[in-house]
Amino acid sequence: MKITKNIGLILAISLLSAHLAHSKHVTVGHLESSDAKVTAEVIKQIFERRGFNVATKSGGSELMFDMLADREIDFLVYGWLNTTHKDYWQKHKDKLVKIGLLFEGGKYVFAVPNYVPTESITTIEDLLKPDVRKKLNKQITLSSFHQERTIYARSAIQEYKLDEAGFTVKTVSDDVFYDEIIDQQKEKSWFVVGLRRPTFVNLAGDMRELSDPNSVFIKSADAHIVANKEAWEYIKKPMQEVLKRIEISIKSVEELDHAIRVRKMPTHDAARRWLGAHPYTVEYWLEPEYD
What we know:
This protein is an alpha/beta fold.
């Protein structure tokens, strides 16, 4: 009996070893934001459903593009190739492949709480109304996580002459940023924050975007999965077609981000549950078959 069990264990280990030996390995890199992390986990699990062994790495934008070009990572989730990451893309594009559109609608905005009447504030220019200035906290709070957001915010303050009216920018950590929004809403304060899409705050914070008539902020940016050229060839055509089909709405990215940031769900579970809740989307993504 013991011999039979040992033989069974040896066979199981042999089969596992054979599987691992024939599995392809890829490394998916992602930016350090929580929305990028959980979106990368969705991509990772799609790779795994196709039999790949997948590792993940994270880092700042410039580092991730350098690692992608040197194939220290195989894929990057995600690249803003026409806006934030344009210079990195131009630097390395001979070694990289832009895969199909992952989602669109990324942007930076100023926003106020939804309980502030639209009759009072709908545009950035409305912040200068005398009756609004009396009620409004003139300190515009931003998360310090994205330096680019701060640059755009300071440009908007100058463009709309908000600085002359006493408006200033305050940057805080990502967690403090969300907590301050919730605290000020409890007091029904009138305040302004700098937001970006995608982020969980757009679902949890109950904020309203302000119109930007002078077009200081980027109106809409597209996010792409980016591949190292050698890695793109390595995964072969069927998996290439799978990745080309993957498109996630910006709202879905924010829902995933909300799951891990507010509901405190493990990243793996949040991605798995999202995939389970969208079976037809996943079926469409995985439709290309191997020969």
